[in-house]
Here is the input.
Amino acid sequence: MLVDENNCFLTQRQFPEMALLRTAIENDKLLVFHKDFKEQKIVLPLVPETDSKTHMVKIWDDFCEAQQVSKEADNWFSLQLKFSCRLVYMPEKTERKVDPKYALHNDITSFADGYPALIIGQESLDDLNNRLTEKLPMNRFRPSIVFTGGAAFAEDKIEHFRIREIDFYGVKLSARCVITATNQDTAITAKEPLKTLAGYRMKNNKVFFGQNLLLKGNGKISIGDKIEIVAQQKSKPGFL
Here is the structure.
């Protein structure tokens, strides 16, 4: 995660140009590069040195301990993004709790906005694109899992599903922010899709698209895996 000089998290909300940085894992190393200038890259260890400095960092209303990755990383990201920032890592001993109102078993998450994972159905995006003049790719919504089949917004009702040996629980619809209006290839922002979504996916002045997930178990999931629905809500939430 990138933080500012006050150790507060940074996202595309404030800095859309962050969308232009790409990542890859090669030979147990993390590669970060600018999509338009791939030669401008930095190679980082997947786990920082154990004796690196730690800081209390802020994500929304949460405070948790994080390790500083390296001065080299701080300088690289600051140069690429043209503002001062630092790269931090969440060590294993750090446990950031999810909102207790939606937690099932003292669940924890990472530096993500609030939950470990997000699911969206391809049919939901297709439904949205049928309402838009210019179709949008799924990367605008940054889901962890995309599934095919079923009706549009079937994920709204998913309460519990299983992929292989991992159980997932739909606990909270995802309220969407301005990042969905940022083109992930150009960093240019616009009014869509929030303008259109507000017409049929709004509730309590928030626009919803996707379902936040908690999970139990360990394992590997792959493209092509089947989703086993264990439990669903009886009715979809009401939207304007």
